Amino acid sequence: MDKIMSLGCKAQSLLNATRAIDFLGPLALRLYLVPVFWMAGSNKLGSIEDTIAWFGNPDWGLGLPFPTLMAWAASLTEAGGAIALLIGLGVRWISIPLMFTMVVAAVTVHLHNGWLAIAEGSGIFATERTAGAIERLDRAKDILREHGNYQWLTENGNFVVLNNGIEFAATYFIMLLVLFFYGPGKASIDHLISKRYANCTD
């Protein structure tokens, strides 16, 4: 029993030694999210008039109130948030509006499509909608095999059907939630500021 306890303590000590590089966890989260939010924000800013129209139109858009304000706020939050995440400045603060944009996106754009981002025909998250999408995908593949160079078309990856569910938005929300509670880690400007001002924390 003592040997087992000793081995357990040694294993725990080895595990604890990884705390020396625990900055890698929040750094990885931040760097993963940077291109996600940069592309989302810069694409909206690049065609801001179209973004405003999409935010405001109730027929083919989101039908949101104050579409001009909402479009600019979302675009600048995403693009500016990407920069803040990259350098690790104000990460806990910027996580709040970024989480809000993910909630709005999930509710207004993705929720009615269910959970899955990519359609699947079976599994716990599959629905009649995704099963129907897979049926159509199989038919499309048959057409391509008959009338196209299917091997060339699929050389760099398989065809899929975008279901556009809340999966990605929920995943990004959870990643931001972790950053909000645990901070950006030691590899950040926030950490340098907290070291400079002893009363502050990450």
Quick take:
The chain has 202 residues and is mostly helical. It is 68% helix and 0% strand.
Write the layout of secondary structure elements.
Layout: H1 2-17, H2 24-46, H3 48-56, H4 67-87, H5 91-110, H6 128-147, H7 150-153, H8 167-182, H9 189-196
Features:
about 200 residues, mainly alpha, about 70% helix
What does the model show?
The chain has 202 residues and is mainly α. The protein has a domain at 23-117 and 164-196. Helix content is 68%, strand content 0%. The protein has 9 helices and no strands. It has helices spanning 2-17, 24-46, 48-56, 67-87, 91-110, 128-147, 150-153, 167-182, 189-196. Helix 2 packs across helix 8, helix 3 (48-56) crosses helix 4 (67-87) and helix 4 (67-87) crosses helix 5. The radius of gyration is 22 Å and the shape is extended. The two termini are 42 Å apart. The mean pLDDT is 93.
Secondary-structure element pattern, one letter each: HHHHHHHHH
Radius of gyration computed on alpha carbons: 22 Å
Q: Which structural category fits the helices and strands? A: mainly alpha
Shape: extended
Measured as a percent range, the helix fraction is 55-70%
**Low-confidence spans: pLDDT under 50, at least 5 residues?**
none
Q: Kindly state the mean pLDDT as a whole number? A: 93
Biggest β-sheet: count, sense, barrel? none
Total of DSSP H or I helical runs spanning 4+ residues: 9
Question: Strand fraction band?
Answer: under 5%
Rounded to the nearest angstrom, the distance between the terminal CA atoms is 42 Å
Number of strands: 0
